[in-house]
Amino acid sequence: MTDRILIIDFGSQFTQLIARRVREAGVYSEIHPFNKVTAETVKEFGPKGIILSGGPASVTEAASPRVPAGVFDHGVPILGVCYGQQAMCAQLGGAVSTSDHREFGRSFLQVEKNCALFDGVWQVGGREQVWMSHGDRVTAIPPGFSVVGQSEGAPFAAIADESRKMYGIQFHAEVVHTPDGAKLYSNFVHKICGCAGDWTMAAFKEQAIQAVRQQVGSGRVICGLSGGVDSSVVAVLLHEAIGDQLTCVYVDHGLMRAGESEQVVSLFRDRFNIKLVHNDASDLFLGKLAGKTDPEEKRKIIGATFIDVFEAEAKKIGGADFLAQGTLYPDVIESVSFTGGPSVTIKSHHNVGGLPARMNMKLVEPLRELFKDEVRALGRELGLPDEMVGRHPFPGPGLAIRIPGQEITREKLDILRAADAIYLQEIRNAGLYDAIWQAFVVLLPVRTVGVMGDGRTYDYACAIRAVTSTDGMTADFYPFPHEFLGRVATRIINEVRGINRVTYDITSKPPGTIEWE
Ligand code: XMP
To answer: Could you confirm whether 40 is annotated as catalytic?
Structure first.
């Protein structure tokens, strides 16, 4: 079995980043919520090291989370981070109290002593930048530990018991604002836990294929293809694992970009030889959307119609035992996080979450452990073309939410598609596609007066949008050179009948959102 690290989650917003740093060090890891871990699950998992994450609770409260039984006596190295350090100290005979010296943000760690965690990274006497976020702090360390680093607000900012290979840090080494943090995690997993660091995407692919075969047996699997990266990777991976036991269903809602549906069909059916049902349901979707202008209503109609069509197709092929989904790691964490998800719904993003329960199918989710860029690496490993794995995200409701505040018609969709294709082509030609998170045209519900060839025009205005982002949660507009914007505007106005004005959207998120509705 490959070396693995168990990360026990106490609900920190940075737990995913810990997993990420461990994988970057070439070591496989999994995050398990603290309240799902028992001595048996630790044994079964067989970790070479355990990391205790941060979390929002306070160890000083009686009902706060504790390090699960079986962790300390499992005999492998342990690294406690922030809340993880505090819980470890409290449970091993130290003390924690609520502090007046709360530390949030950048802080400096005075290195007091050498230890394996700092090996080759920090020297005694160094003053190193770290990132803190804590109210409570350790006030007495457990027997066997010594202080290896201090900060102004935390006299026990880094502690170590080298004989038991237990380490605690008050700061968050997993965030980029602790510039040497990745090296500390690398030290922990390699030098302290002895992990080989040989985890690769090729190894993951083989493991994932075996796991799918084991889960599915001789059962039948259905997979909804959207044309996006995640579902494409799932489809190809499953096809390698179980061949014709897989059927993919592409529900074409008629709201895709120029040429996209044809690409999906030719790539999966012709090139990968995957059994693919292509249901062109554009009449049905556009019929249901007729006269609708409210964004949430549009999303609901599209989501519900998608489920109806998908279910009908599943029945036609005689049903299936499993539904394959491209759920990623951040989605998993969001749904199991014991602190709950976001409190306000800004947009009810359409997804197929309602399907499995309604169709009574078990889920196959081979990407559950991966981050987006790892999914892309897996896609390349599986032979998916670069244009597919490097694709920008595209929203489930498609172009319907890029024709804001107005009725969606085939005519408007055609105008939007033509403008969008020109814009994306220019972005690719300029070599900017990969520097941008998402780029698209929005057809505005306003007609403006123009003059072309001595004649008056009265046509639509459009907005072009391009943003940079790492996760879609926050975003900034892309600073195109004016000359590039001018070229795109000229081409759209000259080549797309129906648009006579182009504007550039320079709103960041927040306060805007990426899509216009
Ligand atoms: P917003 O507009 O909320 O978008 O800033 C964040 C990311 O989500 C995409 N998006 C959607 N994806 N269904 C989806 O599957 C939706 O209803 C939806 N709305 C927005 C958006 O394209 C961006 O990547």
So the answer is: no
